[in-house]
Amino acid sequence: MSSGATHIDIAERDVDVPLSALGEEQAQAVGQWFAEMPVSERPDVVFVSPYARAVKTATLIHAEGGVSDDAIELSVDERLREKEFGILDRLTRAGIENLYPDQAEFRRILGKFYHRPPAGESWCDVILRLRSALDTICLHHAGSRVLIVGHQVVVLCLRYLIENMTEQQILDIDAQGDVANCSVTEYAFDPDQVASGRPVLVRYNFVAHVQRENMKVTAEPDANVAAR
Q: I need a labelling partner for 4 at 20 to 30 A (CA). Which of 97, 146, 174, 201 fits?
């Protein structure tokens, strides 16, 4: 893609984009990392976005022994899909500014948290469906070790929800860098903070399992970075 290109050249729908060969190796590394844990510490429930690359990642983690032996089959949940970009899908920043200058201006005024492109979603829309997903997990899997396989905005919005953040707090975290592919963000309950009812962040954007295999650490392609 040239620096002045307005469109991203992708043959498939975003939901159908397959996991790359490197992505498969990274997913296997995650599965091996989980497999080295005691069985009592491995995930025993897996929720995954319906996007092909996410399902493949979860499947490879399972194949490497990364979930407990009595784990149920993958729960594919459309509420975990990536943020939808609507009319801005497959456009570069230059493409948005050239083809939809009004949307570029709306985003500048509203900010990425609240801006909803036509036929697309704002971060708030993603958060709304994630509230529902978390309610389902809490209702049916309380006490379980739950693995969620999703996407960059999903990871960030889950942090916003679980840690009760403000808009500025989560945007500051987003500004520090992309969520790495096959990185691990982990929460656990702290016995000393049971009264709060909130799990505590153990690690964020953790990639040691990828680095130890001498693999390149990568992030989601910024095809929709301007809309994201």
A: 174
CATH of the domain at 37: 3.40.50.1240
SS3 54: helix
> CA–CA separation, 217 vs 15, rounded Å?
22
187 domain residue, yes or no? yes
Q: For residue 194, give the DSSP letter.
A: G
The pTM score is 0.91
Number of domains the chain contains:
1
Grade residue 222 by pLDDT with cuts at 50, 70 and 90: very low
Most distant CA pair in the chain, distance: 54
Whether residue 112 is contained in a domain is answered as no
Full domain range(s) for residue 32: 14-85+120-211
**Tokens encoding 91:** 């456009």
Decide: 97 and 61 in contact? Cβ < 8 Å: no
Task: Judge whether 79 and 129 are in contact, CB under 8 Å.
Answer: yes
Burial class from Cβ neighbours inside 10 Å (0-12, 13-18, 19+) for residue 135 reads exposed
Nearest to 71 by CA among 47, 43, 48: 43
